[in-house]
Amino acid sequence: MSIGCLDDVRPGALLVAMPGLVDPSFAGTVVYVLDHSDTGTVGVVLNRPSEVRINDVLPGWSDLAVQPGVFHVGGPCESETALCLAVADGPSEGLRVVDGGVHLVDLDADPDGLGSVVTGLRVFAGYAGWSPGQLAGELGEGAWACVESHPDDVVATVAGDRLWHRVLGRQRGARGVLSTATPDPTQN
User: Fold this and answer.
1) Is position 101 within any domain?
2) pLDDT in tens, 125-164
3) Which of 41, 67, 103, 104 yields a CA-CA distance of 20 to 30 A from 34?
4) Does the pTM exceed 0.85?
5) Is 40 part of any domain?
6) 36 lies in a domain?
């Protein structure tokens, strides 16, 4: 089901960059919303893998990570900060529910203790952030579509344009048609 206005933005929703959004930090991205309140919005870009292997920085977590086992560029804010999202079958110490089966992971926890409940995780360097009112303006300009997420979006083995197309392909109407376009309108 598609949702679309600021009232629909909530933890667990996806923000999908529309083709007119050309800011290099966000063009063609799919952002998973972690928090949305009067103080602003925070999320992580799901579809920007880096070259940095998780095993090289956080070796204990690499066995739980989905392939290709690399950090993802979560956004332009605090790129030295690591955030981790996991899909888990149930609650566990070290996990905080974001929405449904998606959890924020405490990277200071023992990864061995989570292996029985975590079905996959992804680690992000940095995050995306909007100040109060900023996202509302961008939604009003049509820069973003706000849509429902699926837990497997967070741990998808597809990245880049393929995840963008997959998320839009689930939508109805004009948004679904966009799934056949390139994220960069100059390439259509």
Assistant:
1) yes
2) 999 999 999 999 999 999 999 999 999 999 998 888 999 9
3) 67
4) yes
5) yes
6) yes
